[in-house]
User: Fold this.
Amino acid sequence: MEDNEVKENVKNLKMSTRDDFNNSEETEKTNEIKANKKIKIEPNGSEMSVYDKYYKLLFFISIIALAVSLIYIYSFYSLHGDILKKDITLSGGTSVQVQTASDINDLKNALAPKFSEVNVRQISDIITGEQIAIVVETSVPPEEIVPFLEEYFNFKLDETNSSIEFTGSSLSGSFYNQLKIALILSFVAMAIVVFIIFRTPIPSLAVIFAAFADITMTLAVVNFLGMSVSTAGIVAFIMLIGYSVDTDILLTIRVLKRHEGSINSRVFSSFKTGITMTLTSLVVNVIGMLMMSSISNVFAQIFTILTIGLLFDILNTWIFNASLIKWYAERRNK
Assistant:
């Protein structure tokens, strides 16, 4: 009786062992099939993501966008003799602001046959949205435009109902040259500071490239939209350097000078912080642009240029620069 029981237990043990072996074989085959479906195995044994495999191709998005922008700016320069369209504050001319509720389109139609270069816009009340004034900007002197406007509105323009500003071409041209020098010096100073911070060529050039690409792409879009850039617009381009550099420096320092976590985790951590900063600035600038579009052309242009630049900064920082810094960090760790 006991012998039969022992034999039965041995038989059950053999069957259980055989089942475990079969299950182990099936599990091993299943894992092998899954492994064959994986994209790639990194040297440390972890699975390589699609981003890890193709992130180098993202370089070309910003490079192609920059190349297209440079070609467009060169074409614009060939047609107009300058890299941007200047308003009267940079080229010289007359600005007349008249307090009237007259139809702006009728005035445009009346001015078009008489004056070749003229810009007409309205100023509205910030609360009610009602038109309170019309601004006429033209390259001709006040002696030509003021009599025409007085005849059109059928009243004499004086200090109570209008304001007239005139800028000579030589003065505005000199001011334009000074602003260009200020923009160039700001960019050079930024580049020097970046090189001092990182002291290595590739991370430094990545930050400088992103700032240059932001300015170039923004200028191309501004020209495409037909905007006449004022002195405030040049100042906005200088401000754009600061907006661009802060997120690039954040990314570079966090990826290269910190060592906790993987490279991907450090890139993602800097992305969460940086994109929050950029989107916050973007929302503020969009609100300012919408509010000032019919009130102040100066502020509206600043907000518009910064909005365009911040959108390109997302592309150049988190597509190009992040990929380049990731490649550099992996290459340095080998």
Observations:
- Strands lie at 93-98, 118-124, 131-138, 162-167.
- Confidence is low (pLDDT under 50) at residues 27-47.
